[in-house]
Amino acid sequence: xxxxxxxxxxxxxxxxxxxxxxxxxxxxxxxxxxxxxxxxxxxxxxxxxxxxxxxxxxxxxxxxxxxxxxxxxxxxxxxxxxxxxxxxxxxxxxxxxxxxxxxxxxxxxxxxxxxxxxxxxxxxxxxxxxxxxxxxxxxxxxxxxxxxxxxxxxxxxxxxxxxxxxxxxxxxxxxxxxxxxxxxxxxxxxxxxxxxxxxxxxxxxxxxxxxxxxxxxxxxxxxxxxxxxxxxxxxxxxxxxxxxxxxxxxxxxxxxxxxxxxxxxxxxxxxxxxxxxxxxxxxxxxxxxxxxxxxxxxxxxxxxxxxxxxxxxxxxxxxxxxxxxxxxxxxx
Length: 332
Description:
Layout (H helix, E strand, L loop, with lengths): L17 H18 L2 E2 H8 L3 H11 L18 E2 L1 H7 L1 E2 L1 E3 L11 H15 L8 H13 L15 H13 L1 E8 L5 E14 L2 E8 L4 E6 L3 E10 L21 E7 L18 E3 L2 E8 L2 H9 L5 E5 L1 H16 L3
Antiparallel strand pairs: 1-3, 2-4, 5-6, 5-9, 6-7, 7-8, 10-12, 10-13, 11-12
Helix pairs in contact: 2-3, 5-6, 8-9
Pfam families: HTH_PafC (PF19187), WCX (PF25583), WYL (PF13280)
Organism: Protaetiibacter intestinalis
InterPro entries: CBASS_pafABC_assoc_protein, PafC-like, PafC_HTH, WCX_dom, WYL_dom
């Protein structure tokens, strides 16, 4: 066995707990199999642990396995390593492994679905050039039971606008655009863009509105003729508190009375203002919502068919009814 007295001392690392040790081994073994033969120092640098921790873990792996039909451990039931390389050259090479190939693997369809989701995430401004997402896509492609279908996430109508707004957020430049407010009036807005967020297929810009002198949320499909100005923003995310909830009440909000099945009330929590009067009407719950415009209300109600009914005002009832009628007419 090689004399290790001349090796550089390992970094001082607190001993891991049993659960952490198991999680580490579950990550270490597939990595070693993927890299064929690596040094102890390379593995330690990759996982951010001490050299001695890697040596201890590899020794433990070599004592692990699954008992065979005799309920005792035979040589082929255990992991094994190239001990000569490990003890003399500090190299790790797994020469025998068990159970790893028997682990459940994603089907080609499951992997393709996950890859599509990752491609969507890669399109978001905050994930541009994310090495972690690219690596994960590669692992999913290689780790499926068969080759996943080749697919791509199609761009939406908001993609060009998303790129412009994302650039403005990254560069800290003010944007100017026309905005259709809740009353259907087109207003010119100058906004310091702070964050881009999405709910399902809808995109929103959160920023400081110079017209209202307050934080506002703007929906992409109500914005028009957006330009990125050369003016730097006056309010940034460090001085403007962005609430956790995407929708914050404002004086411009529209109040709508609805009746909903009890099981969907929780899904409407973001729209129900604090102190809203709530009562039972038969098997339904009557309460009020605050929405920025009726277009958003239409989409909200359409997403809960048969469980939510608009009671008042009449303009809201009419907007939702016309939306539903237009949708039904397309199937005629």
